[in-house]
Structures are given as structure tokens and as C-alpha cells.
């Protein structure tokens, strides 16, 4: 049986990257791969017999003494613990290939030379823009920011990009400087997978060589998500309630369009958004965090799903989930969102951050004939079934493994 070393900071469903990481593990295991995870210890982790090899938990938001804080800060740049524990795991399992997801700040890239030294072909999925932008998002208080392009990473300090903190931003500057000067990612990873064509193009635009960059779209389990094409009377947003998601713009637009809006999720802006909706008298219902059947029902009964993002989204899973449930998308024309929308066929786009543009899009879908909305949902579902299934994803992924000389051997 072929041993695949699957690496990510967290081993529980913390965010979108973790969902892809864990679901990918299940998919490949079902195809005959032996999956060996390597992560950080955490009380929410899924159980695994490999957890003794995991590194100690690090939560950078936690309050500790200065000595502990300094040790953790140094681990951002280089974790000797992760390096040593990974070597022990490699000695035990003799992996045929490694697939990395998010390793920044916790496991750290200290593990990369160990994989190279042991001759383990290595693939990394880039879920964000961290290897270009020290602060991940290419976002400043004034909007989308690409000031670090061309190596000008000092901007992370001058703009205090990390939580508007000078010390934290300085630490991230040092981390980025060390990793770039050593080329620790470029020298030790064979293939970088980008879930969106937009991200792939952005890396090339910022000077990365295209020969090791490959676009593999995300996937959705169409077998478990059954479509409901009948349009509802409300619109829905589901996701994190943070500034870059554009929910404030959405509430203003919903009020202007006089539509009913349901917001699903939690985040730092939740109370501020509730106050805004109340002050406008907008027809907005906050449903809190939802998952599973409750979430899917709320989406299925909507007229359309709205993605009002105001940053460079990668390849939002929410688009594919909505399509699988038979719902069209109203999406901001930013990042990887437009490539997931067939204009006037599976949804419509609008100018990111523009209240009037979003309001017009909402009004258009609101007054569109039900038959036209149904047709959009059907085309969306057909597109997902053709391009974004688990089967398509696993074939594309295994093809990349094969190019590195590795293939599944069922045992």
C-alpha cells in the first residue's frame, strides 16, 4: 500500500482549508492510499493512531508569560520540534509522497528540508496568498493591497498589517524575510496546487515560475447534496462575518433592494452588523452558525446565494455547495469568484464593494421569473456534476502524484 503523508496545522474542521484537507484524506483512503496525518495537537482533533507524533499545541492568541511567548514566536520562523517529530514519523512509515496544506506559524516550513532530505516527493495546496503577502489576504484597511509585490515586504510593518500591531507585524516581516532569503518553499516543494486560476495567475504575476504551479479546482460531494430548484423568497449569505467578506455592503444593498436576507455565520463583526441592520430597518435575519442539514435547508429554500467578498477569494467552497443545492450565485467580481460563475447562466456578478451594483443584482434576481431562476440552478448543478465532483478531483490529484512517480498500490 502506498503511504501518503498528509500535513496540516490542524486536524479538525477549523476552516475551509481543514475541510479540504480532511475530505481529501477520506477520498484518497477510499481509493487505496494509506493516509498518515501530521499536525499539531489540539483538543478538537479527530482521533488518529498517529497523534503521538503531532507537535505540541500553539495558540498565538492565548496569554502566556514573556518566555513562552518568545519561544512560540521563534517557532513561527522555525520549529525544531516539528522537524524532529516529522523525522521520527518518516523513519516509522517510510512515506512515498507528502501532501501539505497550511503549515504556517505552527508546524512551520522547518519540515520541508526534512522531506527533501529523505527523498519524499512533496506537493502543497495553497489555500491563501501567504507566500506572496506576509499577511495572507492582500488586504489593508483601505482595501485590496499589493504593496509587497517585488519583494517590498517591509510594508507589512509600515502598514501594521497584522491586527494593526507593530510587534506582531514585525515578527511576520522577520518570518517572511528568513523564509524568502532561504527560498525554503521553492527549494523543497515539487508542485504547488492552486484551487483557482486567479491564484495561479497571481503567483506568476508576482514572479513565480509557472512550471511547478498547477490549477486543481476544489470539489463537492454531489451525492449528499440534493438540489431544490424551486426559488424561495429570500436571499442568503453564509460564511465568516469579517470585514473582507463584504457583509456590511450586502446589508446596505439588501436594504436598498428591499429584499429579505438571511445571514448564516459568526465572526468579529456580528454585533456591528446586527446594529447596522436594525438602524436601517433592513429585513435581515441572523441565524448564527449552522452546519449540516440545517445549513443546507436554509440554502435550498433561498432564491439565490450572495458572495459579496471584498478581497481576493481563492475558490470558495460555498459556490460549489450552492450550485449542488440548485441555487444560482450573485458574486463579487473579485479574486477567484468570477471564474466560478457563468454570467447569466449560473448566476451574475457585480462590482465588489459597490452597494448600488449589488443592489441592482439583487433586484434583478428578485424580479426574474421563477422559471429563469430555476434554469440557472439547473445549469449550475449540471456544471458541478461535470467538473467539480469528487471523482474529477481525485483523478486530477492522482495524475499529479503520478507525474512525480507515485501511484496508489492497494494493499
Describe the structure.
The chain has 411 residues and is of the alpha/beta class. It has 2 domains: 3-127 and 190-219 and 390-403, 3-Layer(aba) Sandwich (Rossmann fold); 234-387, Rossmann fold (3-Layer(aba) Sandwich). The protein contains 15 helices and 14 strands. The strands form 3 sheets. The chain has a 6-stranded parallel β-sheet with strand order 2-1-3-4-7-8, sandwiched between helices. Helix 9 (247-257) packs across helix 13 (355-367).
Brief sketch in words of this structure:
This protein is an alpha/beta fold and 411 residues long. It is 40% helix and 14% strand. A 6-stranded parallel β-sheet has the order 2-1-3-4-7-8, sandwiched between helices.
N-to-C CA distance: 4 Å
Silhouette: globular
CATH architecture of the largest domain: 3-Layer(aba) Sandwich
Identify the CATH class of the largest domain.
Alpha Beta
Number of strands: 14
Sheet having the most strands: 6 strands, parallel
Could you give me the name of the CATH homologous superfamily of the largest domain? Glycogen Phosphorylase B
How big a fraction of the residues is strand? 5-15%
CATH topology of the largest domain: Rossmann fold
Rg over CA atoms = 22 Å
**Structure annotation, total helices:** 15
Give the helix proportion (percent range): 40-55%
- Ranges where pLDDT stays below 50 over 5 or more residues in a row are none
- Tally the structural domains: 2
Structural class given helices, strands, pairing? Answer: alpha/beta
Task: Estimate the mean pLDDT confidence.
Answer: 94
Amino acid at each position: 500500500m502506498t503511504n501518503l503523508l498528509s500535513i496540516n496545522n490542524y486536524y479538525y474542521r477549523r476552516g475551509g482549508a481543514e475541510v479540504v484537507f480532511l475530505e481529501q484524506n477520506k477520498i484518497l483512503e477510499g481509493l487505496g492510499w494509506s493516509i498518515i496525518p501530521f499536525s499539531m495537537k489540539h483538543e478538537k482533533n479527530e482521533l488518529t493512531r498517529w497523534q503521538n507524533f503531532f507537535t505540541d499545541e500553539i495558540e498565538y492568541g492565548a496569554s502566556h508569560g514573556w518566555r513562552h511567548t518568545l519561544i512560540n514566536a521563534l517557532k513561527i520562523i522555525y520549529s525544531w520540534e516539528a522537524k524532529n517529530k516529522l523525522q521520527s514519523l518518516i523513519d516509522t512509515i517510510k512515506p512515498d509522497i507528502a501532501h501539505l496544506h497550511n503549515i504556517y506559524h505552527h508546524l512551520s516550513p522547518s519540515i520541508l528540508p526534512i522531506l527533501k532530505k529523505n527523498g519524499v516527493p512533496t506537493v502543497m495546496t495553497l489555500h491563501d496568498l501567504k507566500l506572496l503577502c506576509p499577511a495572507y489576504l492582500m488586504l489593508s484597511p483601505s482595501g485590496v493591497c499589493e504593496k509587497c509585490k517585488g519583494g517590498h515586504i517591509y510594508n507589512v510593518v509600515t502598514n501594521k498589517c497584522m491586527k494593526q500591531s507593530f510587534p506582531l507585524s514585525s515578527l511576520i516581516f522577520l518570518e517572511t524575510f528568513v523564509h524568502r532569503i532561504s527560498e525554503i518553499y521553492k527549494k523543497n516543494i515539487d508542485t504547488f496546487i492552486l484551487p483557482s486560476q486567479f491564484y495561479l495567475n497571481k503567483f506568476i504575476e508576482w514572479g513565480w515560475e509557472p512550471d511547478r504551479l498547477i490549477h486543481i479546482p476544489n470539489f463537492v460531494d454531489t451525492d449528499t447534496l440534493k438540489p431544490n430548484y424551486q426559488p424561495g423568497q429570500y436571499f442568503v449569505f453564509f460564511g465568516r462575518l469579517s470585514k473582507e467578506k463584504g457583509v456590511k455592503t450586502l446589508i446596505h444593498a439588501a436594504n436598498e433592494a428591499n429584499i429579505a436576507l438571511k445571514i448564516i455565520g459568526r465572526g468579529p463583526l456580528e454585533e456591528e452588523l446586527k446594529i447596522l441592520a436594525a438602524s436601517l430597518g433592513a429585513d435581515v435575519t441572523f441565524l448564527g452558525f449552522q452546519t449540516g442539514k440545517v445549513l443546507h435547508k436554509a440554502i435550498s429554500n433561498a432564491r439565490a446565494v450572495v458572495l459579496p467578498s471584498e478581497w481576493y477569494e481563492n475558490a470558495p467552497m460555498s459556490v460549489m455547495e450552492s450550485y449542488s443545492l440548485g441555487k444560482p450565485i450573485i458574486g463579487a467580481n473579485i479574486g477567484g469568484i468570477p471564474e466560478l460563475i457563468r454570467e447569466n447562466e449560473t448566476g451574475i456578478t457585480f462590482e465588489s464593494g459597490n452597494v448600488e451594483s449589488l443592489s441592482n443584482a439583487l433586484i434583478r434576481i428578485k424580479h426574474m421569473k421563477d422559471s429563469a431562476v430555476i434554469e440557472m440552478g439547473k445549469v449550475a448543478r449540471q456544471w458541478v456534476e461535470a467538473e467539480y465532483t469528487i471523482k474529477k478531483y481525485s483523478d486530477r490529484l492522482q495524475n499529479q502524484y503520478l507525474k512525480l512517480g507515485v501511484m496508489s498500490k492497494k494493499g
